[in-house]
Amino acid sequence: MEQIIVNGVVLAANYALIALGLTLIFGILSFLNFAHGQMYMIGGFVVYYVYAIFGMNYFLALLACAMTLFVIGVLFETLFFRRVLRIATREENSMLLAVGTALLLENLALFFFGEKQRGVPPVVTGVYQIFGAYLPAGRLLVLALSALLVVGLLLFVQYTRPGRAMRAVAQDKEVTRLMGVNVDRISAMGFGIGAALAGLAGGLLVTISAINSGIGTAISIKAFIMIMIGGAGVVAGAILGGIVLGFAEAFGYAFMPGSMTYLLIFVGMILFLILRPQGIMGKPWG
Amino acid sequence: MAAIRHLTRSLALAAGMAMLAVGPAGAQNTLKIGVLGVMSGPAASWGLVNRYCAEATAQMVNEQGGVEIDGETYTIEIVSIDDKNDPKLAVSGAERLIHQEDIHYIIGPNVDTTAASIVPVVEAGNAISIPYAFSKQLYTPPRSNSILGMIASYQAGPIIYQYLMENRGVESVAFVARNESDPLNQRDEGVAAAEELGLEVISSEDTYEPGTTDFFPVMSKVVSGEPDLIVLSGAAPADAPLLIRTARELGYEGVLSTETAQDITILNEVAGELANGFISVGGASTPEIRSEYMEQFIEVYEQVAGEWNDEAGTKVYALEMILATLQQAGKDAITDIEKFKAAIPEFSMKNPFVKEDSQLTYVGSAYFEQPRQIGVPMVVTEVHDGEFKTLFVGSVE
Amino acid sequence: MRQALPVSEASLPQLGLTLPRMVALALLALVYLVAIPLYFAQSNYILGVITNASILSFISLGVWVTFAIGRINISQGAFALIGGYTAAILGTRYDVSFWLCLPLAGVVAAAIGTVIGAAILRLRGVYFAMITLSLTEAVRLAFLNGGAFTQGASGIVNIPRPDALSVFGVTIIPAFQGANPMPFYYLAAAVLILGLLAVWRLTTSRLGWVFRSMRQNEELAASIGINVARYRVIAYGFSCAFGGMGGAFIAAFHQNIYPASYSVTDSVYFMLYCFLGGLDFVFGPVVGAFLLVISFELLHDLQQYQALIYGVLMISCILWLPNGILSLSRRRAGPAEENEEPAVAPAAEKMERTP
Asked: Cα distance from C239 to chain B (closest Cα, Å)?
């Protein structure tokens, strides 16, 4: 039982990180980044190359990974999404563009990184025992760093100027523009940060779970589940969603076959959304 | 890094294709062989290794001037299609190879679902497929157009379990399988074999979704049963390293084994020394038993693919067998597969990939009522200090 | 009734059957039904590709109908799976004729869709999209865990080919022999053409106008007395029926079905075909599906670059033709029509977004 709880906590922290970037982008730009899973995957590969192949310091690798994805995010927003959001007559366009970018990123990754599954040497070794449950040091590190990043993001969004501007844009774009905020730049920055968070999640998790160029879709689906349950566009919602999914998975796998667990998670989520469509903490939607 | 290698590989491939189109001096005819398999997504290495092996063999043969069948020389051209493990794409891919490219010999597909879906196409199109899927249905009469390219899990399993019972004192076993058709079938066969041998099956219902990156939850459950042996049924090369690492991190000290081929590079990358003692089924690539020809093949493979993959040790036989059988059956067999089938029962050639003198034949009659399996030697290996060491060599018959 | 609804001219799907359009349609029909089968009679592969494109267009037509009421539907793969399994189980276990299985698959899919739709259609925009995406996954998992009923991951194989259809002893359609793709080609073509007629009729009927007004502004439509809840479910049920029938066809065509046969990726592609063709045009899904399926096959010779180019093509299309390929024909109609639409749409969307 203790092992299940420990598993749940670690999973929850991991998943919350994945959901955070997605919810940030959704909050500011009001559309779903379908390519989120692929960005996670690229983050993992960046860390693989910088840390495992070039042999540099792990934290340097994380920095490189965040910066790479930030650039990709900003590029996507300025080159692709800004234009589409402006000239399209239907809101589906941006989502379908996101699907296109997901496809593009996945195939680019397959082309450049190859098809093999990759992993990195552990950053820290050793296994701890907590209340009789096993907790490898590597997972503890991921847990700690994830928590740090979550707190960092919360502080950023609450107290810094750009962070507050992002919250303002998420609340009401027109009024924010009227108040003199450069909405275009904030949107690009928001997308960049969201992408960077996805990449960092990948870069952290590659130390304990390995990556290959095909995992994008599966990760995106998990991210969607989390923000649907927790509520889209709200940071607390993403964290809650991560907690719910993490524990659901830990408990589920312990008592029943894997696919049954996910079937129940989906059914449960659909029923929950019928009763409360905006998720636990989301903005009310008609 | 790999990007540059991949780029050079693509350019080399393009150049090679161009050369093949022109043809080396003297060879007038082209023999086209198809490869159909999963070449993208999480299971990409299965189909890609098929393709690279075929291309490497083709390159080696073409560099010697081509393959000689009935006095005429043929340049080999490989046409490959990615079916993405989707039965619908496997069907259209097979149709394209057979009807568009006029191919009668197809290496692949890789899993039960895709292999089964192309059976009607292959039978109607007068072609032979060499799947790497284990479903017995594919190879048993009335089907006769498919030839199993490697050792099936239900062939290796009992032999491995017996060895472990006799040499490591294993008395109980637990199974964990990937939740997909092939691995589940392999798990069921494994359970049947274990029970027949008298092993206590502690758990066999645990599965994980394809695409799982965190095995802690599922392995916690498996390890808690304290089995002497954990069998990773149908584990893809991508899953095995993590499964092993998670089990060891959870304090598991028993034996870990699988009946599919694995990749030592990623085992080392991801599991490191935690992989020591891991038992799997390999091919001709363990250093102690490989021949010089195999060493040459590995070099060419690395040129074609960018880096070696131990999975290729099992998949290296397909094209060689096709060519050698065609040589024995005569050039009519290139378009008339009945002649090819007729040559199967009597066929025999020296195994070019292993040092010791052994013959390669078509086997499998005990399982499929007819010889529809390439007699690949069953090399059971164990990981030691970052390398596969041969544990023992068996065979299907 | 028609004059009362606040809809601009530019938002109508292209309905007018002018002479040039009828000639074009006739030519197209000729090529589709006569020229291609004759010319490619020996090529199983090409006939297979076009059959594939035809039935995929048909399934996407269903998704188009949900777009018509303003919902992004990423669940069509689930209903193709439901229809496929219905036909597979009836065909292999109860020896039901294919000609009964096909409509039955549509009915079962529509029934299940109606029940689920009644619950989830109150959601909109990305929320609806995400929940339908989850539905695709959930249905796949359900079939995977269906035990002996669905045979789990092993799927159902050896589904019999369509048998002969006879009424009062008279054989209308002969049994589909062996691997001959021609009967399947014509069946897919017939299904597609009938589907197009049905959807076209739908859009020109009163129901079509109701749908249009709901897409423009659901609150406004409700305020003038339209029972939006009922019409939403009708549209979704209709869409699911198309998915189910398409799935049944493919099950008989490939003679197998697995939980892996339709995944989230397939659902996304159905949506994509509609979108690339043009969401305002009934022919949109057909154009989108044919274009993407054929270009995918044509790109085959480029091997590893194929998927990459595919992705780039998609993005380019979305960037420069965000209203679909067929919208190019509309641009020639003149700027006056275009300007009307943006005025109505942003105002409507603004009203939708405010909580």
From this structure: 22
Of A221, A100, B276, nearest to C138 by C-alpha is: A221
Tell me which chains share at least 3 CB pairs under 8 Å with chain A. Answer: B, C
Name the domain count of chain B. Answer: 2
pLDDT in tens, A197-219: 999 999 998 888 878 877 888 88
Tally of helices (H runs) and strands (E runs) in chain B: 15, 16
Same domain, B18 and B137: yes
CB pair distance less than 8 Å for B120 and C152: no
- pLDDT reported for residue C269: 86
Contacts of residue A97 in chain C, CB cutoff 8 Å? 315, 318-319
Q: What is the mean pLDDT of residues B197-208?
A: 90
Are B108 and B198 in the same domain?
A: no
Is residue B76 included in any domain, yes or no? yes
Between chains, do A11 and B216 touch, taking CB under 8 Å as contact? yes
pLDDT of residue C354: 41
Beta bridge partners of A135: A128
- Would you say residue B40 has pLDDT above 70? yes
Task: Kindly state whether residue B387 falls inside one of the protein's structural domains.
Answer: no
- What is the reported pTM? 0.80
CB C282 within 8 A of CB C95: no
Shared domain for B176 and B213, answered yes or no, is yes
Question: What are the structural domain ranges in chain C?
Answer: 46-262
**Chain B residues within 8 A of A257 when measuring between CB atoms:** 179, 205-207
Pairs across A and C, CB distance < 8 A: 133
pLDDT at position C331: 61
**Disruptive mutation site among B91, B126, B181, B205 for chain C (greatest number of C CBs within 10 Å):** B181
For residue A107, give the nearest of C137, C308, C342 by CB distance. Answer: C308
Strand partners, A129: A134
Question: Which pLDDT value is given to residue B268?
Answer: 86
In this complex, do A84 and C123 lie within 8 Å of one another by their Cβ atoms?
no
- C-alpha closest to that of B207 among A253, A263, A264: A253
Q: Which pLDDT does position B24 carry in this prediction? A: 45
Rounded to the nearest 5 degrees, what angle is found at the Cα of C250, between the Cα atoms of C244 and C254? 150
Query: Touching B: which chains, 3+ CB pairs < 8 A?
Result: A, C
B134: CATH: 3.40.50.2300
Q: A32, C323: Cβ pair inside 8 Å?
A: no
Are B27 and B72 found together in one domain? yes
ipTM value: 0.83
Of A92, A101, A269, the CB nearest to C275: A92
Residues of chain C with confidence (pLDDT) below 70: 1-17, 169, 178-179, 300-307, 330-355
C93: which residues sit within 8 A by CB, 6+ positions away?
none
Q: Are residue B111 and residue B135 in the same domain, yes or no?
A: yes
Cis? peptide before B109, omega within 30° of 0: yes
Domain that holds residue B347: 2-150+290-377
Partner-chain residue, chosen from B87, B96, B185, that has the shortest CB–CB distance to C258: B87
Specify whether B28 is located in the same domain as B129: yes
Residue A112's closest chain B neighbor by CA? B3
Which B residues 7-26 touch C at CB under 8 Å? Answer: 10
B207/A257 CB distance under 8 A: yes
**In a domain? residue B306:** yes
Q: Is residue B389 part of a domain?
A: no
**CA–CA dist C219, C217 (Å, integer):** 6
Of the candidates A31, A193, A37, the one whose C-alpha atom is nearest the C-alpha of residue A106 is: A37
- Count CB pairs under 8 A between chains B and C: 70
B370 has a pLDDT exceeding 60: yes
Which residue in A6, A117, A260 has the most chain B C-beta atoms within 10 A of its own C-beta, making it the best mutation to test that interface?
A117
Tell me how far apart the alpha carbons of residues B148 and B151 are, in angstroms, rounded to a whole number: 8
Chain C contact for B112 (CB, 8 A cutoff): yes
* Rounded-to-5 percentages of helix, strand, coil across chain A: 75, 5, 20
Query: Are B222 and B342 found together in one domain?
Result: no
Q: Are strands B200-208 and B255-257 parallel, antiparallel or unpaired?
A: unpaired
The reply to whether B140 and B162 lie within a common domain is no
Average pLDDT on A252-261 reads 78
